[in-house]
Amino acid sequence: MRPATRAVHAGRPPHEPDEPLNVPITMASTYVAGGEREYGRYANPSWTAFEETLGDLEGGRCLAFASGLAAVATVLDLVGHGETVVAPRHAYNGSLMQLADLEARGRVRALLVDIADTDAVVAACADAALVVIESPTNPAMEVAEIATIADAAHAAGARVVVDNTFATPLLQRPLDLGADLVLHSVTKYLAGHSDVVMGALVTRDDELHAVLKGRRDLIGAIPGAFEAWLALRGMRTLGVRVERAQANATELAKRLGEHAAVHEVRYPGFGGMISIVLADAEAADRLTASTSLWVHATSLGGVESTFERRRRWRSEPTTIPEGLVRLSVGIEDVEDLWDDLASALATA
User: Do both 273 and 128 map to the same domain?
Assistant: First the structure.
């Protein structure tokens, strides 16, 4: 089956009389002894259905986490004391802040690179224990040559994790390109309705899966049953949402590129994320304050269109332009989205 079909059908109960179409929400902290679950921190049928579906889409075995950053922390915990982590200079702010915190405490050494400069990344892999890739990057929209970087990292004995939040498994499957792990902020496109906070990791390495599950069991960074159920419900429409958001983004990127107020458009050519650069911070702030349809918000990947000036966060890298606005294009009618943007750009 093709990916959009698998998103609808994976992780469901068997097609037997009186079986429900959807896996029920299992609200249980304790199970009868003697089986594989034992306790609510170790497993839940609602997680299992979600994990089977995302694992099928990414081509590996999935583990669900309480948040994307809980998944990030679990991956970084694999790195030995004093070892080097290579990561994109531009990436999800929470991931960079976690890495900076670990480095400040002497736990790891962070080496930040321009992920689109493949030669520089390959050179940095020589001393790495872990190579983190985000593609496209957040919010700079840089695209990495995942297969080439993964080959170099493995030659150096490093693991490779790819944050696939922006692309989703419908547009990119990092495990097929050589990655050891795929990371998702399920909060974003997978759940897709701005009502869930969750994360996930996917791997094809059974030994690595066991290690990660052991860390999740010990730390307790587990999702709630209701959150897992909501995320799976949202993932059933991933195909149509990604298709519509991408079509809207492609058209908006073209129009934005022709607008006099827009100095630069950063769109990788796929997906629903665009970044634009306006003259300065003031112009960007006027844009985000002048729309009636676009929502000024920091998250992304929902059915509604959101945007924000990223440098309003003091922890955002200073190499991100002050006037950069990241747009998460939703599934609304593209003409309504453009009318609202065009009107606000006139003010900006």
Answer: no
Domain that holds residue 270: 238-347
pTM: 0.97
Find the helix packing angle between 206-219 and 68-76, rounded to 10°: 110
Last residue in a domain, options 169, 201, 235: 235
Q: With pLDDT > 90 as the criterion, what percentage of the chain qualifies?
A: 99
Same-domain status, 62 and 181: yes
CA angle 71, 98, 161 (to 5 degrees): 45
How far is it, in rounded angstroms, from Cα 72 to Cα 94?
9
Are both 130 and 208 inside the same structural domain?
A: yes
Same domain, 197 and 244: no
The Cα–Cα gap between 144 and 121 comes to 9
Active site residues: 41, 92, 163, 188
Q: At how many degrees (to 10) do helices 281-288 and 334-347 cross?
A: 130
Give pLDDT tens digits for 21-68.
999 999 999 999 999 899 999 999 999 999 999 999 999 999 999 999
Indicate whether 158 and 245 sit together in one domain: no
CATH of the domain at 83: 3.40.640.10
Q: Where are the beta strands (DSSP E) in the chain?
A: 61-65, 84-88, 109-113, 128-134, 159-163, 181-185, 199-203, 264-266, 273-277, 295-296, 306-309, 324-328
| pLDDT score of 107 | 97
C-alpha dihedral, 265 to 161 to 230 to 211, nearest 10°: -170
Q: Are residues 191 and 270 in the same domain?
A: no
| Eight-class DSSP state of 127 | G
pLDDT, residue 347, reads 86
| CB 263 within 8 Å of CB 310 | no
At 160-171, the pLDDT tens digits run 999 999 999 999
Q: Is the pLDDT of residue 136 over 90?
A: yes
Q: What is the rounded average pLDDT for all residues in the chain?
A: 97
| 48 and 135 co-located in one domain | yes
Which of residues 198, 218, 235 is at a domain's end?
235
203-249: per-residue pLDDT in tens? Answer: 999 999 999 999 999 999 999 999 999 999 999 999 999 999 999 99
